[in-house]
Amino acid sequence: MNDDIHTPADAPKPVLRLKSQKFREARQSDWRALSTQLDKVEKRGLGSFSIDELLNLPLLYRSAMSSLSMAQSISLDRNMITYLQALCVRAYVYVYGPQTRLKDVLYSFFVLGWPRAVRKLGGEIALAFATLVIGAIAGWLLCAHDSSWYNVFLPGEQGSRGLGSSADDLRKTIGGNPEDHALSPFAVFLMTHNVGVAISTFAFGAVFGLPTFALTLYTGITLGAMVWLFAQQGMGFEFAAWLTIHGTTELFALVIAAGCGFHIARRLMFPGDATRKVALQEAGVLTGTAMIGVALMLTVAGCLEGIGRQMITDPFIRIGIGAVMMTIWGLYYTSVGRRKPGESA
Question: What gap in Å lies between CA 135 and CA 217, rounded to an integer?
Answer without folding.
Answer: 5
